[in-house]
Structure to design on (1136 residues):
């Protein structure tokens, strides 16, 4: 038997931090080696198990940052220190760091790129949120360029608007992105226009997390295993990127129907 | 160079490997990728009349001796499936449909529409051990039910029908016989074993959301080989031997037990989609070393 | 320090491990050695009325995910067995007898004599998958036969009766219920799975002399755990959870599924006779780390 | 999974040598590391599988030496070059070589100690056979002291008669033996009398070969795993040594009944 055992292992919740009204970071007691862009499966017994980015790390600990959505994320955010969740992973392929990069994130997509920014602090980070309340990690990344839809803090524009002129000036060779897929699609199109490589962390409905069930497919790629980070070459071949995704049943729907208001 | 091709109910496979149902078979593009990666044939994920979300997660886990799953037949339902697989012309290997239902009527309603799609055959899993309303949990694994469902589907399609049987029955030969009498063209043996259960002792809870699930992979192999051996003695129609095959030697073992083609599922976990080509290559090497020219000569060799 | 002792039908075990029948239990001295090596209790190899040589060799092999065996109940028969186990006074753990027969009458004839020996309980395997005339192959695994045999033995002994059930039945709860109604004091769950088959592809022949044999060890564990879980929901009598246990975590998993004691067989292959003490030690460590004082608190924990 | 796979692997018979009218050596194509005193299980498909000493080795090859007994050994001796048998092993614990040793063997027990003699050619080797015809390995061990029951060659006595005076003179610190168990018992008793260590390779009916079935037991030892070679300390504790053995059913019988004329 060559294969590894894929089972959730319980980890204690050590600390729960309020990042924003509907965003919390959970610090978990778990030693883990991972690449920025990889994810873990978080299990709440008798409820469900879903993918989350590893949003931060400290010796013997990892963190996830959860946005309130449905019943699972709501229960996860209600976790108190001392309670446990199951963790398996890390899974997937992360970002491939290269020189002259920039990071652009939207909403809780910032969780996915946060450890990349930490690994490469020299890279500029553009971040977009709906409103001031939803801006997270401000202390963690004081140099972050913040944009809000309503201008309650930072620039009143999309972060792509801040990225565009600098791309035009040829400042970056590669752009890393995670956020709502419409945003990532816009970033990718911008990069294509300027001949710059793009690495985007996609999100699809996941079950196994390790490339067996075919649930998380986008084009002929498996987001859990071939991704979640895809480069320009792969993104170009994905008709579904920025257009459609599949529900839990496998039904193909528009991104709008899929995300239905999701911000990351 | 060894000839790996087999003819399964008149369908020509370039090599005996068949991607088993429920593994990556959710979309046309994934079937295409698996076929392009070297699978001799590929099977779609089972489709039911109405869309199903399946069980909550975890749905698939592995343990030290194999895998366990309770996916619960998640699928977008018949209508979406008809759209998804309308055009299969660019897929470089034969494709098999997989149809499930809660009773003979539902089976034939779905099969009647699916048969219009360009699949080479229709598989009927009567044997899932972990989806209420379907398979073993709906009593579909008895010889009587097997006959009834197979015969009902036989009425609505001219395509080869593969009846997929459960290893968890006392007399698998009788079930295969009933399928043959009902008009099955081949037997797929076997579906997942058990069900089994894994408990997380820290959480003190079963890990699969459905608590129990079918056991596949290495743990299943000897039982699957025995089932194929028994069925080969009982029926005349060909067998797609499935369960725990992860290398060329396992595939040859299955064929010697009586299989004409060899289903591969859990091995994709370790080997990725390249596992089909890898298995085929290993079979070829073995045949070359042992002076076997046509892989079909190996079918049932352990019985002679 | 954690308390590992359990009370099984009033029999006190220093730890929950029980050496399963057919593993090393051929002689008094081997039982003594296993007990001295730390087993909580030990089971003798099953005895039949008349002496049996068993199947030719190979009778036991291993594969990448467990073991396979078709020993075929080799044993010297009732009379020799009465001599062999006449005095068990120097064995430092409770001992369980194991009795097999071709029908209820044979079971009770053997049990009636064996009950005179100083065993603490009598186990009745109604579930061997690879010995013609016995167990599953003789139809002893149905609820009806289970009831009949158990009731017949109940008439000839006052000792606790453990009925050992097969994982290869559609509804294991019903079998356990029938045993309980027949007068069983505990259920041993489970016996070997399958049967399975392994083929030597160079020889083109099944490797076991009996061709097929029961699958045990790692491959069996999830199915065994699920059986124990199902039985715990169905009957009130205790369960000896058996199948694939090879470490403390597995033993705890079995107990959480509902077992009061934990059978260990195939793990002796890897771990030798020291495996019982090793498992007990690992259970103790886990309990200490998790603040569990009495191991009995874990019984059925996954159900709560 | 830690455990190794125990399955017979087919090996080609390369050469069959007539050692004596009822004794043949089969050379098998098989690479194997083993200790003198260990054994292999030899499988003839659809017939049976039984233990045999590794009686010789050459690069990529091992040999077994078979004495004609029942149906299995008879079929084994009929094997022709090119046919295959299954081999698994080596199993058990072999001899522990020490200085100032002597080897004493009877009948085809010589097969079990032959590789020990080869590893330690300086050790004297005493060999007993019924008659000249049954003397094997003469060319292989020219210094072997041969005894026959009928005096048709070598000394007309038991090999123990040749060993005794030299034990009395204190020439040996350890004696290695394999042969009929009555002979081994006599050797052991002799060694005990002279305070010399004895290592004897026992034979019991075997099934699994790896310590699970309990078939091969002698005292509370497993001959397949704890043995087949036992030292004086273990032999002393074995009531059954030299007295009784168990048939295939497990029935305990006298050695006479068990061996029933066996010479090794
Ligand atoms: C690679 C990856 C990384 C992710 N990282 C984060 C993260 O860092 N922080 C965070 O808050 N969320 C993250 N998510 C999303 C997260 O897994 C959940 O989808 C989200 O928490 C909503 O779950 P819910 O059950 O509360 O909501 P629901 O109401 O059940 O679902 C709301 C929407 O979430 C999506 N969704 C639900 N279940 C899944 C699933 N199993 N797999 C994928 N998408 C699903 C669907 O679009 C669904 O429409 C990530 C998803 C992926 C695929
Ligand atoms: C560790 C060990 C090493 C051995 N090495 C050799 C060897 O180098 N050369 C050799 O000729 N023989 C050897 N034997 C004996 C050999 O295994 C066979 O027993 C023998 O060949 C007779 O087998 P048969 O089937 O032809 O005879 P049968 O008529 O079946 O048996 C004759 C007698 O052989 C013994 N026997 C039979 N089967 C077995 C078995 N499975 N295990 C142990 N004893 C058995 C019994 O005493 C039986 O009464 C060895 C046995 C053991 C245990
Ligand atoms: C994750 C997973 C999902 C499965 N889904 C289906 C399914 O939808 N329909 C079906 O007939 N079999 C399904 N099966 C069973 C497989 O097709 C196959 O029969 C079984 O896994 C044994 O083969 P393996 O050991 O190679 O995996 C599934 C198996 C797994 C592991
Ligand atoms: C070699 C071998 C022999 C066995 N013989 C018997 C037997 O005689 N009677 C019996 O009730 N069970 C017998 N069994 C079944 C075991 O007692 C046990 O139920 C089974 O092996 C599952 O446990 P395990 O996975 O820990 O081995 C045997 C199992 C093995 C591996
Ligand atoms: S989540 Fe199963 S294949 Fe990606
Ligand atoms: S032969 Fe099985 S224990 Fe020795």
């Amino acid at each position: 038997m060559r294969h590894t055992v894929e089972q959730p292992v319980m980890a204690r919740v050590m600390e729960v931090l309020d990042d924003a009204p509907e965003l919390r970071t959970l610090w978990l007691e778990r030693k883990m080696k991972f690449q920025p862009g990889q994810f873990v499966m978080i299990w709440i017994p008798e409820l469900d198990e879903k993918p989350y980015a590893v949003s931060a790390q400290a010796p013997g600990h990892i963190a996830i940052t959860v946005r309130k959505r449905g019943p699972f994320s709501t229960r996860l955010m209600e976790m108190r220190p001392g309670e446990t969740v199951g963790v398996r992973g890390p899974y997937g392929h992360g970002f491939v760091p290269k020189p002259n990069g920039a990071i652009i994130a939207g909403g809780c997509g910032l969780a996915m790129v946060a450890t990349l920014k930490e690994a490469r602090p020299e890279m500029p980070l553009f971040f977009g949120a709906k409103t001031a309340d939803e801006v997270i990690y401000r202390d963690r990344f004081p140099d972050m360029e913040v944009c809000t839809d309503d201008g309650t803090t930072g620039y009143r524009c999309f972060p792509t608007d801040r990225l565009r002129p600098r791309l035009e000036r040829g400042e970056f060779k590669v752009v890393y992105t995670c956020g709502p897929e419409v945003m990532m699609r816009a970033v990718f199109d911008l990069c294509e226009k300027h001949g710059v490589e793009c690495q985007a962390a996609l999100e699809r409905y996941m079950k196994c997390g390790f490339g067996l069930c075919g649930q998380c497919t986008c084009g002929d790629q498996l987001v859990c295993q071939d991704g979640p980070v895809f480069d320009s070459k792969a993104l170009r071949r994905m008709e579904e990127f920025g257009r459609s995704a599949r529900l839990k049943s496998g039904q193909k729907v528009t991104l709008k129907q899929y995300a239905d208001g999701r911000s990351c | 160079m060894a000839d790996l091709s087999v003819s399964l109910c008149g369908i020509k496979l370039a090599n005996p490997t068949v991607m088993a149902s429920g593994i990556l078979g959710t979309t046309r593009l994934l079937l295409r990728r698996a076929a392009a990666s070297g699978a001799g044939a590929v099977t779609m994920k089972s489709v039911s009349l109405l869309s199903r979300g399946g069980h909550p997660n975890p749905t698939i886990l592995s343990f030290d001796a194999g895998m366990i799953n309770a996916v619960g037949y998640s699928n977008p339902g018949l209508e979406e499936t008809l759209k998804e697989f309308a055009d299969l012309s660019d897929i470089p290997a034969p494709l098999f449909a997989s149809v499930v239902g809660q009773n003979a009527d539902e089976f034939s309603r779905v099969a009647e529409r699916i048969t219009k799609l360009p699949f080479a055959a229709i598989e009927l899993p009567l044997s899932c051990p972990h989806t209420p309303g379907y398979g073993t949990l709906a009593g579909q694994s008895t010889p009587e039910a097997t006959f009834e469902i197979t015969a009902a589907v036989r009425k609505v399609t001219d395509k080869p029908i593969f009846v997929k049987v459960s290893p968890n029955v006392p007399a698998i030969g009788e079930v295969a016989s009933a399928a043959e009498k009902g008009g099955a063209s081949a037997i797929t043996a076997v579906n997942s074993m058990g069900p089994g259960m894994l408990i997380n002792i820290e959480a003190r809870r079963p890990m699969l959301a459905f608590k129990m699930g079918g056991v596949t992979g290495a743990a299943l192999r000897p039982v699957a080989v025995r089932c194929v051996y028994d069925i080969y003695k009982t029926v005349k129609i060909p067998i797609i031997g499935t369960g725990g095959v992860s290398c060329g030697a396992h595939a040859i073992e299955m064929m010697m037990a009586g299989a004409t083609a060899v289903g591969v599922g859990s091995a994709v976990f370790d080997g990725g989609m390249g596992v089909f080509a890898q298995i085929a290559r290993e079979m070829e090497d073995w045949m070359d070393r042992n002076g076997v020219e046509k892989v079909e000569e190996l079918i049932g060799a352990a019985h002679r």
